[in-house]
Amino acid sequence: MELDKALALIKRNLKKEIIETKHFKEQCLDRNLDIKTIRNVVSGNKILGIVEQDEKEKLYKVWFYYEKNKDLNIVMRILPSGKLKFVTTFPCYSDRRAR
């Protein structure tokens, strides 16, 4: 899938039902990230960047504005139904994105 089409699909479906993997939930707990806060960040749709990680698996890494000096990275899969499945998440300092 072309990156611009994937981005449009992701933006459209962020406000709909999102499937969270067990791994995603575990990563949130391990990193002291509240899932409700993550959903608020994501629903704000402040996407800063997107990278295709695996074309065959339709896996994308998406950067969201999180805090003043941090981004929230979420690896997500686009399912054949068009729904989004969150695979993992981690905060990252914004200056790393700018490299």
Question: What does this 3D model show about the protein?
Answer:
The protein is α+β, with helices and mostly antiparallel strands and 99 residues long. It has a single domain (3-97), classed as YaeB-like fold (2-Layer Sandwich), CATH 3.30.2310. The chain contains 4 helices and 5 strands. It has helices at 3-13, 22-30, 35-43, 94-97; strands spanning 18-20, 47-54, 59-67, 70-78, 84-93. The chain is globular and about 30 Å long. The N and C termini lie far apart (26 Å). The model has no long low-confidence stretch (mean pLDDT 87).
Topology:
Layout: H1 3-13, E1 18-20, H2 22-30, H3 35-43, E2 47-54, E3 59-67, E4 70-78, E5 84-93, H4 94-97
Parallel strand pairs: 1-5
Antiparallel strand pairs: 2-3, 3-4, 4-5
Write a short abstract of this structure.
The protein is of the alpha+beta class.
